Give the backbone structure.
Amino acid sequence: MNEKLHYWMLALPALAVMIVFYIWPVLNIWGISVTEPSTGLDNYTRMFDSNAVRVSFVLTFRIAAVTTIMCLLLGYVLAYTISNFATRVTPLMLGLVLLPFWVSVLVRSFAWIVLLGRSGLVNDALIDTGLITSPIRIMHNELGVLIAMVHVMLPFAVLPMLTNMRGIDDSYVKAARGLGASEWRAFREVYFPQTLPGVFSGGLLVFVLSLGFYITPALLGGGRVMMISEYITYQIQEFLNWGLGAALSVALLVATALVLLVAGRFVNLRKTFLERG
Amino acid sequence: MEKIDTEFKSDLIEIAAERYKSGRLSRRGFVSAMGALGLVPLLGDRAMAQASELVVCNWGGQASEILAELLGKAYEAETGIPVRVDGAGPSAGKVRAMVESGAVVWDVCDSGAGSAIVMNEAGVIQEIDYNIVDRNKVLKGTALPFAIGNYVFSYALSYNPTMLPGGTPRTWADVWNVEAFPGMRTFRKSVRGQLEAAALAMGVAKEDVYTFLDDEGIKAAIAKFRALRDNIIVWGSGADSQNLFLQGEVAMGNIYSTRAFLLRDQMEPGTFEMTFDGAVLQPGMWVVPKNNPAGTEAAMNFIATCQNPELQAEWFAAIGNAPINPAAAELVPAELAFLNPNSPENVAKQVIYNDEWYGKNQVSAEELYIDALIG
């Protein structure tokens, strides 16, 4: 008992910081959502009645879903290659996966603006090679947001899958091959099922992080790809509408919690968020 | 509800920074303006209960420095009272809190008509003394009993001719004509100055824009944006709109005339044009808080000083916000004259921003506008 108390004492400073600077403000936000401008659920009825809010939520979930799928596809191939083939260059490849973590999302998003613009590198290269005659629109729309978001989120998909794949004993696949399975069949029926926990973990991580994304859509969306966090900023900055802004953030929090709740039935959450790397 | 467009004010700060760096203000030199003023010491000998200083509050940054150096020094030369500029941002809420708490530190505030109406209703600002301030030295309609115009800007149709080989847009109807004028357009992430453009594109006369924009009219204007939205990139800050033109992302758009003023300099000759045809002209306003420390007369004198057409022209050349005094139009350097939204020729082409309409309709219109654009 005494020992337990000691551990709690050790955790106390961190806990205090969390309560004072995170839990307490969040509770205040909840409070604002039901007290401003008047006490009651007005903000929530307004939110549910608003078509713009609905569109923004649908947009947010769609972008998060597509980002997740793209990250899983690209990330799976990458993780598979790193863990099974690239034995000598593994540190280098891992380094390249981790490198973007050291550059801020803001800088990376601006880099995409330079690349994807109407007179950006991609369009210039395509025009120079004669593939297209006039610039194509790959920025200031949903496509631009998706490209940049997949780039930002890719490491979050790769790392859990990589951890998972490295723990897989290759004797199972060898045994399957020895018993006459084709390479494809051995992968599909023996290897792939073992990687599913990593896939789910990576997917969940990317999806949940994407739901709250702000900078990238705001910079690359041309103002029309307004995901929910940008919508919240807009309500508060443009209209000083703290009540509705707070209600929207509560809704986003609840939606994210629901996603985790449902996912919890399929994925080991503890493993996903606590036992990385 | 705070109605003043704080974004525009902070935008001026950025513009001022660029102007300052490019040396335009010092090159043209307020020294010459000072000299001109020195010859006409309008109020210099007037005996006053001397206030130790006059505090003018605006929205911060380099715009504050320019205000202090240009208008502040001119006032000091006239009255001997030094001017200090506070860039804290005199929102209606702050002014109200200050007056009601009895601790007023600002003498003159850079506000807007919408905010001024709010502050007047709250009873926290003074009547303008039109024995000192000249109601004829401002744009018509901006001499309110409790506030008076200080400078002017517009939301104007701008375009890049090199991206429009088939011809350039002359009217808002052209902007909505995607077949004849292909290319991306940019509009503000707010209805301010934007719904008017849609109304004009529908053939509404510019005098009738705000009567047209009743509930049905707003819906019709919003529908125009919905129809055009695949060709729209939205700008949030003035810097956004500037970047969109600089990077060739848009062929045309509805942007601040102050940003257009900068783009004229920054872009290659022939790649940027702006017209005041169908633009929306919006004035800024001076207000004087009740019980201001330097006293009513000192504050009114400052406002009167700022009406000086030479100073107004200097102010325009420095930051691109245009003289509220129509007489300043002819003092604006000839090469910049066509960029002045408040010259008689340009005023005749424009819609005058209607604060009452915004007070009544803006919030509901913004919701519909965003709904039409996103997704």
About this structure: Residues 23-49 of chain B have pLDDT under 50 and may be disordered. The radius of gyration of chain B is 21 Å.
